[in-house]
Amino acid sequence: MTKAVIFDLDGTLLNTSEDLGSALNQVLRKHNRPIVSKKDYSPAISNGVKALLEVGFGEELNRYDVESLRQQVLDSYEKNIAVHSFCFDGIAELLQKLESLDIAVGIMTNKPEFLTKPLLKQIPDLCHIEAVVCGDTLKVAKPHPEPLLLVAKQLGVDPQQCIYVGDAQRDIEAAHAAQMRSVSALWGFIPSLEEAISWGAELNLSHPVEIISHI
């Protein structure tokens, strides 16, 4: 029996692509580099700022101080963290249905806490979620299972009674390691349908509300 559903954040609950892409492009302009389009940077978002920089700078990235560039992107993003970010279609409905079924909800993201908490406060459908573990909450992050196990502990639920939903391979690996059922969020920032299915999730779903029929 499923007693809790835990979610990744970027690319699973929230479409943060335009805000993150804007931060990347601001840094690219600063360094007189051509900006990149949404279709090019969106698949990289779930893999973090380094992946975004690889899209923006390409093979030239090794000529720069990557940590400095990373901090520049983060600084820009922090200042404009929820200008264009919104819940994916169906997320609000899903959360309402889970609440009506008395299914607990948590978030486990590799996004650092100094970005996660302010962002969630500005999203009405998510600001009430209290069980939130970030990429720097522990000394390890996904695909290590410990952050997921911590969310389950906060919710008071056995890991085997949890579903974890994410849009990256590390999400599925973390769910397997934590002995949780895994859902690949095909509505998110997946690199391709074929690659996402190859991750081996128990469920590959194209719309958030589909989760309800698998509770």
UniProtKB/TrEMBL annotation:
<keyword id="KW-0378">Hydrolase</keyword>
<dbReference type="GO" id="GO:0008967">
    <property type="term" value="F:phosphoglycolate phosphatase activity"/>
</dbReference>
<keyword id="KW-0479">Metal-binding</keyword>
<dbReference type="GO" id="GO:0006281">
    <property type="term" value="P:DNA repair"/>
</dbReference>
<dbReference type="Pfam" id="PF13419">
    <property type="entry name" value="HAD_2"/>
</dbReference>
<dbReference type="GO" id="GO:0046872">
    <property type="term" value="F:metal ion binding"/>
</dbReference>
<dbReference type="InterPro" id="IPR006439">
    <property type="entry name" value="HAD-SF_hydro_IA"/>
</dbReference>
<keyword id="KW-0119">Carbohydrate metabolism</keyword>
<dbReference type="InterPro" id="IPR050155">
    <property type="entry name" value="HAD-like_hydrolase_sf"/>
</dbReference>
<dbReference type="InterPro" id="IPR023214">
    <property type="entry name" value="HAD_sf"/>
</dbReference>
<dbReference type="InterPro" id="IPR023198">
    <property type="entry name" value="PGP-like_dom2"/>
</dbReference>
<dbReference type="InterPro" id="IPR036412">
    <property type="entry name" value="HAD-like_sf"/>
</dbReference>
<keyword id="KW-0460">Magnesium</keyword>
<dbReference type="InterPro" id="IPR041492">
    <property type="entry name" value="HAD_2"/>
</dbReference>
<dbReference type="GO" id="GO:0005829">
    <property type="term" value="C:cytosol"/>
</dbReference>
<protein>
    <submittedName>
        <fullName>Haloacid dehalogenase</fullName>
    </submittedName>
</protein>
